[in-house]
Design brief:
Layout (H helix, E strand, L loop, with lengths): L1 H27 L2 E2 H8 L3 H13 L3 E3 L4 E2 L2 E2 L3 E4 L4 E8 L3 E8 L4 E8 L5 H19 L5 E9 L2 E3 L4 E5 L4 E4 L1 H9 L3 E5 H12 L8 E6 L3 E7 L2 E3 L30 H4 L1 H12 L7 H9 L3 H25 L3 E5 L6 H15 L7 E3 L5 H15 L9
Helix pairs in contact: 1-3, 2-3, 4-5, 6-12, 8-10, 10-11
């Protein structure tokens, strides 16, 4: 029994050391083995052992030794982001955004494909068919396909890559990770779309230098993922972060969850457009571009919708932030297009209701962040050794 515990302890220590070194190099870039030891507190022998393993696995590469005044400097090592590619699929109501990235989630190519139906086998076939097209578009023949990330709205068991429930697709307990992995032959990770977006922000985005943050998404739905002490918080059943299902108006507008009066029924981007149409008499064909133009032109109805949305979301967000005390709030989604008209009132209300100082609210203007979030599920595997996935 003692020997078993010793081997288990050694395995756990190695995994922790790997994660420590990889995360240091992710945050700060190339470092020599001596610099890694000094920064992490690990012994030089432990660093040498782990770095050798990571080089052999193709995760790290060695740079060139440079001559200096004190002789040749130690050889730096860095993460080999170009040595692999990751595929990311963001499932939406009628289409799927597809992206191939390097392991730093830098996009190499992208596609948007229609989804002819929402049954699991049709979607799995569509993703499997898209995979070789994306790999070819990446034009990196020497890079290995490290895996596939799928992001979708719903309650997700990320340990088993199973969609426990998706109101939008009408799914219950669908093993989408395994369905796709069995067709392609590489590991597949599955995650709630806002959680995947939060992972991307944590690894390489606006949240890169923060350990505790809220990641608010305002698009087709409303959600707020939480990163606590550097780890995504999923809750007991994978349903954490469903901010859009806070009760707003009892007996109000129907929500896709089957209840009425949820926050997202009034303040998702489509819901805000609906309210604008109702108040202004504008045609239902007027969408985001027309709303943005109306805001710029001083349209009173558009500004009232934005002010009400910002104040209401800000008040609810303040309550949540008073619980978790984040360093920052990162915001993404289609509603970012409304800028200060929406986020000015949100920030002011957040400041008014915050227990102490309100955290800064950072807007993510990148168009490809959501598909990159799906691809980031693959990269996260390099840094989070507790994650499991659908297996080929």
């Amino acid at each position: 029994m003692s020997d078993v515990r010793t081997k288990g302890d050694q395995s756990t220590t190695r995994a922790m050391n790997r994660r420590l070194i990889l995360n240091l190099l992710r945050r700060e870039g190339a470092k020599s083995r001596a610099e890694i030891a000094a920064a992490t507190g690990l012994s030089p022998a432990a660093v040498t052992f782990v770095v050798s393993d990571l080089i052999e696995e193709g995760l790290l590469i060695e740079g060139q030794s440079v001559a200096g005044a004190q002789g040749r400097r130690p050889i730096p090592v860095a993460i080999d982001y170009a040595g692999g590619v990751a595929l990311g699929f963001k499932l939406m109501a009628g289409s799927v955004e597809c992206v191939v990235t390097d392991l730093e989630t830098t996009p190499l190519a992208s596609l948007r494909l229609p989804l002819p139906a929402h049954d699991p086998d049709t979607i799995a076939e569509a993703l499997a068919a898209a995979a070789p097209k994306l790999v070819a578009l990446a034009n990196r023949p020497a890079a290995r396909l490290a895996g596939i990330g799928i992001a979708m709205p719903g309650v997700i068991d990320n340990q088993r890559a199973v969609c426990v429930r998706s109101n939008r697709y009408g799914w219950d307990n669908v093993p989408l990770g395994d369905l796709v992995a069995s067709r392609i032959g590489v590991p597949v990770w599955l995650e709630d779309d806002t959680n995947a977006y939060a992972i991307a922000q944590q690894l390489f985005g606006l949240g890169r230098h923060y350990k505790t943050m809220g990641v608010l998404a305002i698009g087709v739905g409303v959600a707020c993922s939480l990163v606590l002490d550097g780890k995504l918080y999923r809750g007991a059943h994978g349903a954490a972060g469903k901010f859009g299902h806070f009760p707003h108006m009892e007996g109000g507008r129907p929500c896709e969850c089957g209840k009425r009066g949820c926050l997202m029924s009034y303040f998702s981007e489509p819901a805000m457009l609906q309210t604008w149409h109702e108040r202004s008499g504008r045609p239902e064909t007027d969408g985001r571009a027309e709303m943005v133009a109306a805001i710029a032109a001083g349209d009173k109805a558009a500004h009232s919708v934005m002010r009400e949305a910002g104040e209401t979301l800000g008040r609810h967000l303040a309550g949540l932030m008073n619980v978790i005390d984040p360093e920052v709030i990162v915001v993404g989604g289609e509603a970012v297009a409304y800028g200060d008209a929406l986020f000015g009132p949100l920030r002011a209300t957040l400041e008014r209701f915050a227990f102490r100082q309100a955290p800064p609210v950072l807007l993510d203007w990148e168009d490809d962040s959501w598909a990159r979030g799906a691809a980031a599920l693959v990269t996260q595997k390099l840094f989070d050794f507790e994650t499991t996935a659908g297996n080929a």
